Amino acid sequence: MEADPYSDSMLKSPIVIDNGSGVIKAGFGGEELPQKIFNSYVGRPKHEKVMITTDSQDTYVGENMEKYKGALKLSYPVEHGIIVNINDMELIWRHVFDLLKASPKEHPVLLTEAPLNPFANRKQAAELFFEKFQSPSLYFQTQAVLSLYAQGKTSGVVLDCGDGVCHCSPVFEGFSINSAVQRIDIGGRDVTYHLMQLLRRSGYSFHTTAEFEIVKKMKEKWCYVAPMGQLGPDELYNLPSKSQGIGLSMGGAGGTDHQTIYYLPDGSPVNLNREKILAPEILFSPDRIGLEFPGIHEMVISAIKRCDVDLRKTLYNSIITAGGTTLLHGFGDRLHKSIQKLAPKDMKVTIIQPNNRLHSCWIGGSTVSSLKAFSRYWVTKKQYEEEGGYRAILMQSM
Fold it and tell me: InterPro entries given for it (predicted)?
């Protein structure tokens, strides 16, 4: 009997890659937190090279590019959870293996993805890992399900809001109710882009991809979700800007906030007023930027309503948030009140905001991939080659 050349590799720790639209988190299964976290973009010089230096490169990935960011054009290989540039994605995944000092031929790989992604997305990832990286085995799992594993729960609704996608996945007693999964292609990157546009209207000039990343830092530090009912739609867009301060309760952040000054890397100030409230509003009202999507609170309600009536009470009582966008100040309070308003009368709505929600997807992947019982779920390279590969990946389930 011919020995399987990949059997020994199953004894190696699996590599878990949370493949976000904005951030890559990577590490080994069984560990508490990801070892490596870096932005999911690739930089290329936007100016002609006239001097040869020791660290001159054609492409930059991860921490290698931070000091050159202003001279680079940034490209994002994942948009709204979907790989749009497989060549740049390959550069990022190679960087993951380099950072972890691990050979892709020796470790199984668990790769996360957003639910309801097109099969073509999974197909090209499988081709890359099995055919180019020669990975011994591969497993795909949706981010929301892994976030539930991270909390040690078997039932609940996971609202995962990342950089490119917000999705809602109901799970009952360990069974994902796939027919009820909801998704909208809006996320933290859209909030950043909207903030960038609002600042332009206020007279500031932000245009390049490097400046986009500066605005992203502004968003993460100062943007917050206004409490429900505190501002009406018309009032919200007539808030004072630039020279006039405003006083509003920050909900989840606490206290009263007035005009905020953010200093750019060159020392010039940016006054943030209405912009820091307006930008996150698109999560609850995507129509503000012309998108015909439901708000995230409406998405949660829709997902629960698609489940059996006997399950709904349990699901309303266990709505778990995950992803970096849920870290916005006031997010949980606004979400709770918005869902409570739409839920059946007297229904108890509970929003659970874990402290580890920024990494909960990766933590869930680390947990399940290290279980002995999980070994039967891997799709091996041998299966991929013998079964035509695509069928094995498509039929993969847990």
Answer: Actin (IPR004000), Actin/actin-like_CS (IPR020902), ATPase_NBD (IPR043129)
